[in-house]
Amino acid sequence: MIWMAACLSLIAGMEPEPPESAVLMVVVGEPGEEQYEKMFVEWAGRWRDAAEKGGVRSIAIGLPESKSSDRDDRDLLTETLASLEEKTPETLWIVMIGHGTFDGKKAKFNLRGPDITATELAAQLEPLSCRMAIVNCASASAPFVNRLSGPNRVVVSATKSGSQYNFARFGGYLSQMIGDVSADLDKDGQTSLLEAWLAAAKQTQEYYDSKSQLATEHSILDDNGDGKGTPADFFRGIHLVKTSQDDTLPDGTFANQFILVPGEDQFVLSDELRRQRDQLERQLAQLRQQKDKYSEIEYLHQLEKILVPLAEIYRKVEELAPSQPETDDPS
After folding, report:
1. Which pLDDT value is given to residue 197?
2. Mean pLDDT confidence for 143-159
3. DSSP per-residue codes, 213-236
4. Chain-wide mean pLDDT for the chain?
5. Are 58 and 91 in contact (CB under 8 A)?
6. Is residue 262 predicted with pLDDT exceeding 70?
């Protein structure tokens, strides 16, 4: 009895394990042809390599080594998402690589075995309250944006409509850019999902231009929850050239805070400081959206209320960052 009481006391005093910072789930669909299977495996490998580099746990569904002889990939996807309800990560990346279809009513992602519709996936994601990036690299994927859009989510599709049903090359370019600092537009030493998406969309268009063909895919991104999505050519750098007529936060702000391979300073930034920084950056984007509503003096006052604490966060980062060893002056 004494031993049991001691065990119960120990269990009662144990703190629950903190959630994982991030998890990457790569879902590879039915390729249909051998040439596509090779492409999809390569694209998936790039995402997983980037996750490993960023210290993020990755889960693969549909890859040759992850196939189950007696299980459909849709069941595996459903069970994997359900398992994350028990211990939800702070950030979940879902990357869908493959083909898609749209019959005018239902958009589907083609899996080995039964396909999954946008509505079915939305229902499975509903219990997960974490920040989420859902990237559908398939053809006819645009309806997924409207169905999956919501607060605390970034949704990317390879196409701007369900009628763009030809094979989509966008996913290959995005898989290259997600961990490539050459796509770092704001020069902060890391590539965000927004930056990788902008680079991949540009490269996709350049592919069709090089072939003197009309592009059959135009990627869109939604991260303000309105379900509309914005094309890449609405941006200059990481900022939208066109602004909405209401007070809705412009697309792109939240996506620019999703980093799969952090820069060195980001490893120093604690989860709490990151959350504070992200919130301040969203407030800054919102303020810029509403600039015309303020007098110049009031706008500058509101700007100061955001920039001062933001600068304080970056000061803390510099203090916590490991100091660089001094080198001898070569002169």
Report:
1. 98
2. 97
3. ---S---EEE-SSSS--EEGGGEE
4. 86
5. no
6. yes
Q: What is the pLDDT of residue 322?
A: 55
176, amino acid identity? Q
Tokens at 205, concatenated: 């268009």
Closest CA to 137 of 65, 34, 217: 217
Strands 131-136, 153-157: parallel, antiparallel or unpaired by DSSP? Answer: parallel
Task: Write down the pLDDT at residue 184.
Answer: 93
Which segment of 74-88, 138-152, 186-200, 243-257 scores lowest on mean pLDDT? 243-257
- Closest CA relative to residue 271, chosen from 15, 16, 17, 21: 21
Whether pLDDT at 279 is above 70? yes
Instruction: Tell which phi-psi region holds residue 104, choosing left (phi > 0), alpha (psi between -120 and 50) or beta.
Output: left
> Which distant-in-sequence residues (6+ apart) come within 8 Å of 312 by Cβ?
none
**Averaged pLDDT, 13-37:** 83
Q: Is there a contact between 136 and 96 (Cβ–Cβ < 8 Å)?
A: yes
Query: For residues 71 and 209, what is the distance between their CA atoms, to the nearest angstrom?
Result: 42
Q: What is the distance between the alpha carbons of residues 296 and 275, in angstroms, rounded to a whole number?
A: 29
Cα separations (Å) of 257 from 6, 24, 86, 194? 45, 16, 25, 8
Where are the extended beta strands (E) located within the chain?
Answer: 22-28, 57-61, 91-97, 100-102, 107-109, 116-117, 131-136, 153-157, 220-222, 230-231, 235-236, 239-240
Does residue 22 or residue 327 have the better pLDDT? Answer: 22
Q: Structural domain boundaries of the chain?
A: 20-258, 277-320
Question: Considering just the CA atoms, what is the radius of gyration of the chain in Å?
Answer: 22
- The CATH architecture to which 20-258 belongs is 3-Layer(aba) Sandwich (3.40)
Q: Between 234 and 65, where is the model more confident? A: 234
